[in-house]
Design goal:
Layout: H1 6-11, H2 21-26, H3 37-40, H4 69-80, H5 83-87, H6 89-95, H7 102-127, H8 131-138, H9 144-173, E1 186-189, E2 192-195, H10 197-201, H11 204-213, H12 228-245, H13 249-259, H14 262-275, H15 280-288, H16 298-311, H17 318-323, H18 332-383, H19 402-415, H20 430-434, H21 440-452, H22 458-491, H23 496-511, H24 519-529, H25 532-563, H26 569-596, E3 600-605, E4 610-615, H27 618-632, H28 634-643, H29 656-670
Antiparallel strand pairs: 1-2, 3-4
Helix pairs in contact: 4-13, 4-18, 4-22, 6-18, 7-16, 7-18, 7-25, 7-26, 8-9, 9-12, 9-22, 9-23, 9-24, 9-25, 9-27, 9-28, 11-21, 12-22, 12-23, 13-22, 14-18, 14-22, 15-18, 18-21, 24-27, 25-26, 25-27
Length: 728
C-alpha cells in the first residue's frame, strides 16, 4: 500500500478510522476496461476479426449499446404492444361500458402506468444491469425481485410462443382459395355426402380451430398425445425467436424495425378496408357508445388497472433490460411518456379495426338469420300453421330487409303468443350480434377469421392478419427473452449465442406440454395463474424498494443528476403514495377474485359442438397454484438468506461503469483541498465523491429536503456514503 495514502497515515494516528468506500477504491490501480477480458470476452489486445475494438458498445464501460434512439424506442414499443392490444383491450372496452371504459383506463395509465414505467426505465438505465442486478444493488435483501421476474418471463414465454405457433399455422393455411375454414367439410357416408356433424352444430371457423388445428380432447385429463402440426409450428416459432435474439440487441434491434412497424401498416390497411364494408359504422358506434353507469362499478376499474399493468410489460424485466443498454444521460422520462402514449393509441386503433370488422360480420350474420327465419315462416304459411293475414301487405319475401323481418316477427309473436315458442323463430337483432363479446383466441382464430371469409380477396387479408399477429408476438417475445438472458449474462461469463440457443431448446422441450391435444387447456391455465398475481407483487416491491427503502427524495435527486432536469413533483407523490396504494388494492382484488371465482377451463364437447365449463381436477388445481408459489418463492428465500448472511448480498460487486466513474471523481477530488478527505467526522457527514450538486427541493420546491441517514449502517452497500450507488 502506498505510504502517502490516508490509510497508512491513520495507522500512526489515534483518531478513529472511518474509511469510506471511496477511499478504499481510490487505492485500486486503474483498469483498462476496453481491453478487459470480462467486458469483451477476448484476450487482452485482441479484437474480433474485421471489427474495431469496441464495436457498437458504450464507451463508458464496454456494455453493448443501441445503435440509435429509434432502435431502442421500437424495441420498447414492440415489447409493450402485443397480442393483448388486439384481442384483450377491445373486449374489455366492449364489456365495460364502451367509450366510458377509456376514462378509467386513461386515469390509471397516468396514476400507475407511466410513473412505474418511468421508474423501471430509470433504474435500468442508471444501474446498467438486468432485473436481478438492478434490485441486488438497490436493496440486496429484495434481490429476489429480479429472480421472480425472470421466472415469470420464463412461464409467459413458454405459452406465449405457442400462440405465435398457432398464428404461423394459420398464416401458411391462408395461402389457398377458398380459405380452409370458409366451409364445413363434407363426409361421405356410403353413397351419401353429409356435412361433418361437429361442424354443423358449431360453425366452419370454430370447427377448424378446435378440430383441424388443435384436434382438442374433451378434458384436461386426456392428453391425447402430441399434435404434430402444432409441434412443428412451435419449433418454427422458437427458431424465429432464437434468430432474433441470438446476437443480443445487435440482432433484435434490427428485427424491431420490421416487427414493430409492420403491424401498424396492417392495422391501417384493415381500418381503411373495414370502413368500406357494410355495417362497419354500426360496429364502431356500438363500441364507443358510452355506458356511463359502468364507471361506478369497481370491477371496471380493477380490469382497467390490470390491463394498464400488463399492456406496458411492467415487472417482466424486459423494460429494465432494454433500458440498461442506454447511455446514462438518455432522457428516459420522455421515453416513458412516448411509449405509454403509443401503446394507448395502438389499443384505440386496434379497437377501431376489430369492431369495424365485427360490425360487418354482425350485419352478414344478421342477414343470414333473416333469410333462414324467413324460409321458416314461408314453410309455416304453405302448411297452414300461420295465416297469410299475419304478414303485412308491403313485405316482399324476395327482398326482405331486417326492418321488414322485425315488423313481421313482432306481429307473429303478438298474435301467436301461446304457441310462439314452438315456431322456433329468432328475433335477428343486430344489437344481439354486436353484444357477442369475444376475446383472446376466440377473437383472433374464430370471430375475425370468420369475418375475413366474407372479404373480397379473403386469402390476402388472412395472410396479412396472421403475419401481423406473428410480428406482434415476436416483438413481445424478444423483450421477454431479453428479460431472461440479460440478468444471466450480467451474472455469468457466458457467450450470448450459446445462452440463447440453450434457452430456446429448453423452452421448446418444455413447450411440448402445450402442443398436446389437451395443450390449449394448459395455455389457459398458465395465462390465468403464472403471471397475474406474481407480477403485481413484483412491481409493488419494486416501487417500495425505490420509494421507501432507497428514498423517493434521493431517487428524484438522482434523476436530476442523470437527466439534467428535475422531474415533476407529480412523480414524487405517485411513487411514494398513490401507486403503492393502487397496487395493494389491485393485489387484494386479485386474491378475492381468485378465491371467489371457480377455478376451471372451457372444454370443447365434440358431441355438442360447443364449449362447456369444467372445474380443474385436483392435480391440475395443484399445478395452477404451484405456478404462483414457484414464481413468488425467490422473494422470501433471497430475503431470508441475505438477512441471516447465508449468502453474499452482492453489494461489493459494483458495475464496471460505477467503478470507473468513481475513479474519475476521486482523481478530481485528490487535486483539491486535502481537507475534503478528513475522516474525523461522523460517517453521515463524510463528503460524497460524486460531483457537487444542488440539493433536491421537495415537491413544493421551497424548502430544501435533506436526508441525514445516508451514512447509517445498513446491510446494503448500495446506500453507503461514498458509493455512487447512493446516486442510484
Amino acid at each position: 500500500m502506498p505510504k502517502n495514502t490516508k490509510v497508512t497515515q491513520r495507522e500512526h494516528s489515534n483518531e478513529p478510522v472511518t474509511e469510506s468506500v471511496a477511499d478504499l477504491l481510490s487505492l485500486e490501480h486503474p483498469m483498462d476496461y476496453k481491453s478487459s477480458q470480462m467486458s469483451m470476452g477476448l484476450s487482452p489486445g485482441s479484437t474480433a476479426p474485421g471489427r474495431s475494438l469496441l464495436p457498437e458498445q458504450d464507451a463508458e464501460d464496454g456494455r453493448p449499446a443501441w445503435n440509435n434512439k429509434l432502435e431502442y424506442i421500437l424495441a420498447q414499443v414492440g415489447f409493450s404492444v402485443g397480442l393483448g392490444n388486439v384481442w384483450r383491450f377491445p373486449y374489455l372496452c366492449q364489456k365495460n361500458g364502451g367509450g366510458a371504459y377509456l376514462v378509467p383506463y386513461f386515469i390509471l395509465l397516468l396514476l400507475i402506468g407511466i410513473p412505474l414505467f418511468f421508474l423501471e426505465l430509470a433504474v435500468g438505465q442508471r444501474i446498467r444491469r438486468g432485473s436481478i442486478g438492478v434490485w441486488n444493488y438497490v436493496y440486496p435483501q429484495l434481490g429476489g425481485i429480479g429472480v421472480s421476474s425472470l421466472m415469470v418471463c420464463g412461464f409467459v414465454g413458454l405459452y406465449y410462443n405457442v400462440i405465435i405457433g398457432w398464428s404461423i399455422f394459420y398464416f401458411f393455411q391462408s395461402f389457398q382459395y377458398p380459405l380452409p375454414w370458409a366451409e364445413c367439410p363434407i363426409r361421405k357416408n356410403g353413397t351419401q355426402a353429409i356435412v361433418e356433424p361437429e361442424c354443423e352444430k358449431s360453425s366452419a371457423t370454430t370447427y377448424f380451430w378446435y378440430r383441424q388445428t388443435l384436434n382438442i380432447t374433451s378434458t384436461i385429463d386426456e392428453t391425447g398425445g402430441l399434435n404434430w402440426k402444432m409441434t412443428l409450428s412451435l419449433l418454427v416459432a422458437w427458431i424465429l425467436v432464437c434468430l432474433a435474439v441470438i446476437k443480443g440487441i445487435q440482432s433484435s434491434g434490427k428485427v424491431m424495425y420490421f416487427s414493430s412497424l409492420f403491424p401498424y401498416v396492417v392495422l391501417f390497411c384493415f381500418l381503411v378496408r373495414g370502413l368500406m364494408l357494410k355495417g362497419s359504422v354500426d360496429g364502431i358506434a356500438h363500441m364507443f357508445t358510452p355506458k356511463l353507469e359502468k364507471m361506478l362499478e369497481p370491477q371496471v376499474w380493477r380490469e382497467a388497472a390490470t390491463q394498464v399493468f400488463f399492456a406496458l410489460g411492467l415487472g417482466f424485466g424486459g423494460v429494465i433490460a432494454f433500458s440498461s443498454y442506454n447511455k446514462r444521460d438518455n432522457n428516459c422520462h420522455f421515453d416513458a411518456a412516448l411509449v405509454s402514449i403509443i401503446n394507448f393509441v395502438t389499443s384505440i386503433l386496434a379497437t377501431l379495426v376489430v369492431f369495424a370488422v365485427l360490425g360487418f360480420k354482425a350485419n352478414v350474420m344478421n342477414e343470414k338469420c333473416v333469410v333462414d327465419n324467413a324460409e321458416k315462416i314461408l314453410g309455416y304459411l304453405n302448411t297452414g300453421v300461420l295465416s297469410r293475414e299475419l304478414i303485412p301487405p308491403h313485405i316482399n319475401f324476395s327482398h326482405l330487409t331486417a326492418q321488414d323481418y322485425s315488423e313481421m316477427y313482432g306481429v307473429i309473436k303478438t298474435v301467436k303468443e301461446d304457441s310462439f315458442g314452438q315456431l322456433g323463430l329468432d328475433p335477428c337483432l343486430l344489437e344481439d350480434e354486436l353484444n357477442k363479446a369475444v376475446q383472446g383466441t376466440g377473437l383472433a382464430f374464430i370471430a375475425f377469421t370468420e369475418a375475413m371469409t366474407h372479404f373480397p380477396a379473403s386469402p390476402f387479408w388472412s395472410v396479412m392478419f396472421f403475419f401481423m399477429l406473428i410480428n406482434l408476438g415476436l416483438g413481445s417475445m424478444i423483450g421477454t427473452m431479453t428479460g431472461i438472458t440479460t440478468p444471466i449474462l450480467d451474472a455469468f461469463k457466458i457467450r450470448k449465442e450459446i445462452l440463447c440457443v440453450v434457452c430456446c431448446i429448453i423452452a421448446f422441450l418444455l413447450g411440448l406440454l402445450f402442443v398436446q391435444r389437451s395443450g390449449n387447456y394448459f395455455v389457459t391455465m398458465f395465462d390465468d395463474y403464472s403471471a397475474g398475481l406474481p407480477l403485481t407483487v413484483v412491481v409493488i416491491l419494486e416501487n417500495i424498494s425505490v420509494a421507501w427503502i432507497y428514498g423517493t427524495k434521493r431517487f428524484m435527486q438522482d434523476l436530476e443528476d442523470m437527466l439534467g432536469f428535475r422531474p415533476y413533483a407529480f412523480y414524487y407523490y405517485m411513487w411514494r403514495y398513490v401507486s403503492p396504494a393502487i397496487l395493494v388494492v389491485l393485489i387484494a382484488a386479485t386474491v378475492i377474485e381468485m378465491s371467489v371465482s371457480p377455478a376451471g377451463y372451457n372444454a370443447w364437447v365434440e358431441e355438442e359442438g360447443s364449449e362447456r365449463f369444467h372445474s380443474y381436477p385436483p392435480w391440475a388445481l395443484a399445478m395452477a397454484y404451484a405456478l404462483i408459489v414457484v414464481a413468488m418463492l425467490p422473494l422470501p428465500i433471497v430475503f431470508i438468506a441475505r438477512h441471516f448472511n447465508l449468502v453474499s448480498d452482492g453489494s461489493n460487486k459494483l458495475s464496471v461503469s460505477y467503478r470507473k466513474g468513481m475513479m474519475k471523481d476521486i482523481s478530481n477530488l485528490e487535486e483539491q483541498d486535502e481537507q475534503r478527505f478528513i475522516l474525523g467526522k461522523n460517517p453521515s457527514e463524510a463528503p460524497s465523491p460524486m460531483p457537487a450538486h444542488r440539493a433536491y427541493l421537495g415537491p413544493g420546491g421551497t424548502q430544501e429536503m435533506t436526508n441525514t441517514n445516508y451514512g447509517t449502517s445498513t446491510k446494503t452497500g448500495y446506500q453507503n456514503i461514498g458509493s455512487p450507488e447512493s446516486e442510484l
